[in-house]
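Repro:
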Amino acid sequence: LDEFLPHVSAADRETRRVVADLLDDVRARGDLAVRECTMRFDGVDLAPDDWEIPGESWQRALERLSPVLRDALSGAVDRVREYHGHQRDEGFELTSDDGSVLGMRVLPLDRVGLYVPGGKASYPSSVIMNEVPALVAGVQEIIAVVPPQGVTDAVLAACALAGVTRVFRVGGAQAIGALAFGTATIPRVDKIVGPGNRFVAEAKRQVVGQVGIDMIAGPTEVLIIADETARPDWVAADLLAQAEHDEDATAWCVTTSRALAEALPAALERALEGAPRAAIARAALDRNGIVVLVGHMRDAIEVANRRAPEHLQVVARGADRIAANVRHAGAIFLGADTPEPVGDYVAGPSHVLPTGGTARYASPLGVYDFVKRTSIIRYSAARVARDAPHIVALAEAEGLYAHAEAVRRRLDRPRP
């Protein structure tokens, strides 16, 4: 399977150069550079005074939505908020008998930036899944940047419901630069989240250290582990649901059933007939659609662990037992009645997940991504006296004699 596994690669040299030059320009000239880049790449000339979308526009967008869509967005916000409320970390404090204290303080970031892409589709669900965890974490300012050509009512309504505080009509790598460095119009943030095209992804990569980022998101992925109990038409529908995102999306089925493996091509053809995004889905399936036939379920589990998919569906007997042996996956969907789209919209966990095999070491976006931790240390006189020999020995072993002396000074005083 090696040739089919993801191999992380940097952006091409020209993309890196273009983005680096653009970011340098935004850092040096601020709003003027952002405006010129917007004219150059988006064909839109907006004065900085026209970038911000006032809050009343968001509310009007919310009111224009159909009741069904408005209720769906509101319900999704409630579900995501409830789920992520369980991720709150209050820190801790450990007090010794001698009065010494060790602890950890957990505080939210001050300001977060959300990149909202344009491109092939409008994704209000992405606004919710990125921003509600930040809101739960206690972030006070959430700055969204949206396509300068315009944004849908659904996206603006999601901003209103998800806790966004300001929205600016700036896109592309120049928006990442503005958020990372700050301009006269757009405030500098502490962390940038949200997906984008290759220029946006490269810009996020290049501003790491200046600000934090969520992850470098790649094309979306699903891997379905299935046995003979899985319905071919359902599996085909689930593969198609992922493939329609993007021509580079990945859709795998790993099965112990030869009958299912042989039935899937025809089932996929039927699913593609009349599908509104059939051209995109077919291109994705042609490039990255794979059926892997294995002899035993333990082999299916090993394939999943090697692929480390963003989304893993288990449609087989003993789904819980199978999932318990999967070490690497962004999110796991258990059973025939849990298609991946439930996680995209309303289940509760953020749908911002590690891609490209990074689930080997990365986690879904959560409240923990929007907080920082500070260690707290308070020594008593008794504790510093007791630990002094070890501290002095370690400091002198490292040749840091002033470290040792700073501790010795505490010993040259009368004991209370």
